[in-house]
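Hi team,

Filling in the usual template for the complex we talked about on Friday. All components are listed, including any nucleic acid strands or ligand strings, so the model treats them as one assembly.

SUBMITTER: L.P.
PURPOSE: interface mapping
COMPONENTS: two
RESIDUES: 1514
SEQUENCES:
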Amino acid sequence: MIGKSIPRVDAYEKVTGRAKFTDDMAPSNCLIAKVYHATIGNGIVKSIDTTEAEALPGVVKVVTFKDVPDHCYPTPGHPWSVELAHQDVADRNILTGRVRYYGDDIAAVVAEDEVIASRALKLIKVEYEEYPVEIHPRKSMCGSQHPIHLDKKDNVLARSNYFIGNVEQGLKDSHTVVKRSFKTPIVQHCHIENPISYAYMEKGRIVIVTSTQIPHIVRRVVGQALGIPWGKVRVIKPYIGGGFGNKQDVLYEPLNAFLTTLVGGRPVKLDISREETFCNTRTRHSIEYDLTAGVDAEGHLLAKEMFAVSNQGAYASHGHAIAANGLTAWRLQYACPNIKGEAYTVYTNTPVAGAMRAYGIPQAAFAIECFMDDIAKEIHMDPLEFRKKNLIQGYYEDAYLKPIAANTNGIFECLKKGAQHIHWEEKRKKYAEQTGDVRRGVGMSLFSYKTGVWPISLEIAGARLVLNQDGSMQLSIGATEIGQGADTVFSQMAAETLHMDVEDIHIQTVQDTDITPFDTGAYASRQSFVTGTAVKKCAELMRRKILDYAQTLLEGEERTLTLDHGWILADGQQVLSLEELAMESYYSLTNSSAITAEVSTQVKKNTLATGCCFVEVEVDLKLGKIKILDIINVHDSGKLLNPQLARMQVEGGMSMGMGYGLSEQLLLDEKTGRPLNGTLLDYKMMTTMDTPDLNVDFVELEDPMGPYGNKALGEPPAIPAAPAIRNAVLHATGVAFYENPLTPQRLIAGFKEAGLI
Amino acid sequence: MIGKSIPRVDAYEKVTGRAKFTDDMAPSNCLIAKVYHATIGNGIVKSIDTTEAEALPGVVKVVTFKDVPDHCYPTPGHPWSVELAHQDVADRNILTGRVRYYGDDIAAVVAEDEVIASRALKLIKVEYEEYPVEIHPRKSMCGSQHPIHLDKKDNVLARSNYFIGNVEQGLKDSHTVVKRSFKTPIVQHCHIENPISYAYMEKGRIVIVTSTQIPHIVRRVVGQALGIPWGKVRVIKPYIGGGFGNKQDVLYEPLNAFLTTLVGGRPVKLDISREETFCNTRTRHSIEYDLTAGVDAEGHLLAKEMFAVSNQGAYASHGHAIAANGLTAWRLQYACPNIKGEAYTVYTNTPVAGAMRAYGIPQAAFAIECFMDDIAKEIHMDPLEFRKKNLIQGYYEDAYLKPIAANTNGIFECLKKGAQHIHWEEKRKKYAEQTGDVRRGVGMSLFSYKTGVWPISLEIAGARLVLNQDGSMQLSIGATEIGQGADTVFSQMAAETLHMDVEDIHIQTVQDTDITPFDTGAYASRQSFVTGTAVKKCAELMRRKILDYAQTLLEGEERTLTLDHGWILADGQQVLSLEELAMESYYSLTNSSAITAEVSTQVKKNTLATGCCFVEVEVDLKLGKIKILDIINVHDSGKLLNPQLARMQVEGGMSMGMGYGLSEQLLLDEKTGRPLNGTLLDYKMMTTMDTPDLNVDFVELEDPMGPYGNKALGEPPAIPAAPAIRNAVLHATGVAFYENPLTPQRLIAGFKEAGLI
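RESULT (copied from the run log):
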């Protein structure tokens, strides 16, 4: 079953609208909660008056920052650590009187319906004492009179660095030294379903049904936020309408949980708007990079240095892990004897940045891959040639983060396929000298990407299988289907190891922390690798239990028993159907015992996926418009579990990458930090009309680390398009841009400065 | 924790109305189904016209007997058997054109709402060919021109018998031979919540949420009824409002499942009325008994013979098992060298009889215990004395049904307590000679009762435990809380074996056949015995896993590790909290593995619970009224798991037993078999106004077979009140009645015949 393009197991449910999402499950008698957001960007609440709101008929409860537990908690969807040093930064209260960004959560209303809740919000009166707002991290890290968080006087959340060899000496020894600075924008995930949850109490415990990627982590964080034992919290995750990392953070679940405790455990729904999703959930970090590199006369990298400043926004969330991940990427791709990396993550008065698909690598890759083209240009070398000369060859093991390693490395094969598709050599020459207002160019970029979080953090996953009476199988996992097709590939995995038809694997799609095995959730492109390992081990255990039971049922000498599509084979001959065996296991008067298997497994390995993007663009200099004529992503993600689903993942990632390169950016008001375009009307995502035909290819090298030869594919597709487009524009026009997205305004300004128009 | 009267774990939810029952969970967009019932008592449908019903706006589907799968299926909630001979009788279709009783299911309507569905039913036109109706089994077993089921020409569903010694010789050798005939009425369970379910399709499978005692059996029977693999069916059981055995049958779930497949998998709700519950679900069998016994000059039983004819109604349901259970009871209580038993179960044109609390024993005990008083009277012996003389003493092992046995036998102690309470000797004498219209008497009866169904059928149960991060525990079982307090005592059991506080055991109350461990459900007073064994084994496995993990965490020499209320003790000293251990198991970077335990266990033992009822009555001869002045049930059910819950079980059973003795009977029209009083207005249950103070006592002998020394308590309390009341009336008036309930009509007739009025 592995490697087959079977249809998604949830396709019919989703296409017919029958799949149940959080709002479909909410009871009709739910109370409605709404959040009162600050209308300043920095300061404190001097006074708050909720009298009128409370007096409004239909208002059940008004709660302010004064009422919430007064300890802080962390929100990122990381596995917890029993070691203090590895625990996430706890800097958030459920509600706050210290406003740190425009829209911060000050109070909340619980009412009988939406209209009353909205009206009540307008009756709350707040007086503020305002502080100056700072939205730029390089300024914020100089410190301020009122630090955003008291324990960080310089507003620096964290700083990290590393040194390999001697960069200063390497630069001195270089034939050419290149320095460039890059900046990436704030973008938002724009998943279809806004974060939504409802919570109620049952037997003295809090139940939260929520659209999340990380139910078991939500349980833990709600426990931490409310200061109650984690076992008193139950989290249920239905189908979800996308997450892309935004739902790898604990968002309003602690507030929702707290609110139900205030209304005697009645169900309370907290369904935030798209505008709140833009402003009050999480964004992708804007990061500024200063890169320096030296190359010898043949174009070999001798030294390279990265300095990064990441804009965290008002709260830590995933914090420094994103900038640090970019620092790590700086050494995973290109061989170099002398490397230096340093990164700062800085609090500012902006919406909070957190996890987003590819976790800091789209930012780093934009800087690095644009930089590679700039170096190549500087030394008059073809940028593809320059990269191939410097790429790490064959097996790689990271010196800092063992056991991150790559046993298989398909990047050279990927580059070959990409170059062939785009007719690289021909077009690089053909477009070398163009005049006129409309010019064409080809560009490319590449990346490597880790599979899971080990050894930086814990990787643990669980799975449970139950043999049904008809020989079919129930599969439960704690890992989450978030639209990526996880349920389908886990079903394929179980079918593969049990030699069954995938139709006979019934996967439990709703995760429930009371019931489904422990797993930290969907992030870090980990599930098919880490949870896949648990599924495989569980299926192997189930197979052994089935064959052991078959042995007791079959008389005579011992033969080699195997499983084959609903049959037990003895020395290759069908001797007993799996259904007969299952019926005996349930109903035998002499020897009945329902057969189940469960494993919880820690995974202590990590491997690198790679890939590249090649693109051909047409640039209209005067209109400041880029038209993508052709684009291809080529990925080495090991063995493909389901080629059709893999292609879908890549296409979705390419769309996100093109948006990052061309149009997406969340603009903030300089004075308040308020989003200026935080709606789907004003925030420009790629639509189907903007999207060219998407070409996708793969290099399938089975990685011996992956449970089925597979490695990361969920996030990588979002990485390479933006720098490839920028490099293609450079090829077409000779103008290098240092900040994405390449909007018409930015292009026109650049072309004017270059004297092209 | 065992033996403590902790409050029910679901008390708060139920008292506050927050516990979710099936109807609370049904989605708001549910279609509504209603059943078209036959308006004749026997015959065939000649023609059916649904045109007008189908044309009614809002009607989504009309389905008739012509549309359903044409194979038959069984409905009783028995564990399935892989042996053909032990499988239940399959004599029912989802809908039928062969009407076998008044109200039989001919067609069904699915509509947008209740009103439309009801109106559509009235538009269906049916023409019948009518056959004569027979509601009496002794007549029906003579055969009929149109047998109720074609394969049973004489309408006898089944017959069984046994012989021990030589009854004919025994009777010849007897000093006194007594013969009597008895008859018990049809009664109905009258659980608060009528049977209700809703069904929908998900990923090509059918999901049924239903108020049932037996979710895993419903899954199987729906598979059988629809002719689909059982793994394609998922059954979810929320809280239920009582069942008493009616929901130990598969009622309308197959029809509901079938209907959703006809409307493209949209959710369809089938919520039947109280009138349908009386007529179209199940009842307690009416059984007629002819009893003969011979005693020697000292009053020892020398020979006894039971002949029983049980009225099955129109379909087999649990069928002959109920009459057979009464036959078995005939030998479990009173020692006798020569015993004979014979029973017939006969189809008639009446509502279908099935399982009801105590499964045939209230009927048999009514006959046997009234008979015991009659024999005692015949030989001028005190009836308690007569019983004590003949009761089996000490250890008992059944000759026919090994391993049914009693290691402990508290009946003599029970009798002592009961007699003391009622002042037996004093009042037997005091009331011996009375005149006047108002007379008093004391009576008693006793019983023994099996614990579970082994070895007649399979006993298997499963449990799963998960250690939470805070050291608390999730407990999942497939056994069902049906109002009896199962969730509470299972929580106590786990807490006992794990040395934990019961507050730290979080039990999963909703059973879901996709997820919760396999268990056949709530019946046969089996759960605390059979499922309790699984819970105990699972808790022992969990304890071993915890202590093994503790051993790896604790350095140094091996010490004796034990669990104690959230602590690991080493040689009795606290060395590690369970919370710390749990956190390590989830989050250790070196050695993490979430700790879970699951067992599925077959139980191959059975033990007898016993008990008795003593009652004092005042009889108003002219009014034909019985007033209960004092009543006590005394039970030997082994060690009590929760004395307060045990008392509640007994009080509920006593109420049911008094109704059986005094007022409850479902009357049928002779010509059609139609229920004459099938509503809660006309069917006379005991109300709180009718109920005297209830006295309950126990004899606690720990039974070595029970997992915690416990044995059956769920059903037995319903058994002894009715014959005790009848015997008290005999004592008060000298008039023996041979049919319950003792309604005013029946009493007046009896007293007139006896010349008392």
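MY TAKE: The longest helix of chain A spans residues 527-553. DSSP finds 20 helices and 29 strands in chain A.

Thanks, L.
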